[in-house]
Amino acid sequence: MALSGSPVCFSMEPILSEQVGSALSAAGTVPLGFTRGGGSTTSSKRIYESFVTTSTEKPRPKMLSWFQSLMPRDEGFFDLFERHAQTLVAGSRALRSLLEGGDGILGYSQEIKRHENEADLITRDVLLAVRRTFITPFDRGDIRDLITAMDDTIDQMHQTAKATLIYETRDFEPPMRRMGDIIIQAADLTVAAIPLLRSMGQNAGKLNSFGEEISCIEDEADAIHDQGLGGVDTYRIHRTMAARVTTAR
To answer: What's the rounded Cα separation, in Å, for the pair 91 and 84?
Structure first.
């Protein structure tokens, strides 16, 4: 059986970190006291800071607001966000199937890679549109942060799939599969939240709720991740002691 603390388990935890970043960037808020450590949350932290900055900006002059209201807006951004969110759902379900183990691992890994390639193309289209569009639906920096966090999520799913192939892992413990279930939950919440961006003012409360819900389910994933780290330490201690006994003989 694969250890809970194997590289596969380590590579899944950042998926939830990025999912939380995606949801909270969509909501435009950070729940009180929401902090996490570790390098994997850098992009999420950047998202939080960008929205805090955005929410405290000075009101724009009325003349500028009036002028912008007359300018055409490219609504294609929302379609791209929603398409990207669908790749997260598809990728998360393929990852969960992969975690059942067996001979299907290679096929599911290739499926995740296909979804990641599709997501990369969508991300490229969004970043190009940000540069070409005169009036964007909301702040350009926030658009970049949102699509980047979403893309980081499916990239991490692909990294997890690659880890199973590199380390030739074929069996997965229940905590790993449970983490896969949580990733699907987060992806489903994200795909439900993204369409609400079309009317952020009207949907602010719902968006906040989605962000907070994903933040809560991430706590369980963090606990599983910590358990995995403990499993690795225990394994290393046992292996070191066994080596010493063998040497002493």
So the answer is: 11
Give residue limits of the domains in the chain.
Answer: 7-248
Residues 105 and 99: their CA atoms lie apart, in Å, by 8
pLDDT digits (tens, 9 = 90+) for 178-225: 999 999 999 999 999 999 999 988 999 999 999 899 889 989 999 998
Rg (CA), the chain: 21
DSSP per residue over 177-206, as a string?
Answer: HHHHHHHHHHHHHHHHHGGGGGGHHHHHHH
Q: What is the DSSP letter of 137?
A: S
**Rounded Cα gap, residues 177 and 137, in angstroms:** 38
pTM: 0.71
Q: Distance between CA atoms of 201 and 164, rounded to whole angstroms?
A: 43
Is pLDDT of 235 > 60? no
User: Which superfamily does CATH assign the domain made up of 7-248 to?
Assistant: Phosphate transport system protein phou homolog 2; domain 2 (1.20.58.220)
Do the beta carbons of residue 84 and residue 129 sit within 8 Å?
Answer: no
**Within 13 Å, how many C-alpha atoms sit on residue 113's CB side?**
10
Q: What is the pLDDT of residue 42?
A: 39
| Residue-wise pLDDT tens digits, 147-178 | 999 999 999 999 999 999 999 999 999 999 99
Torsion of CA 122, 26, 130, 114, to 10 degrees: -10
Is 240 a residue whose pLDDT tops 60? no
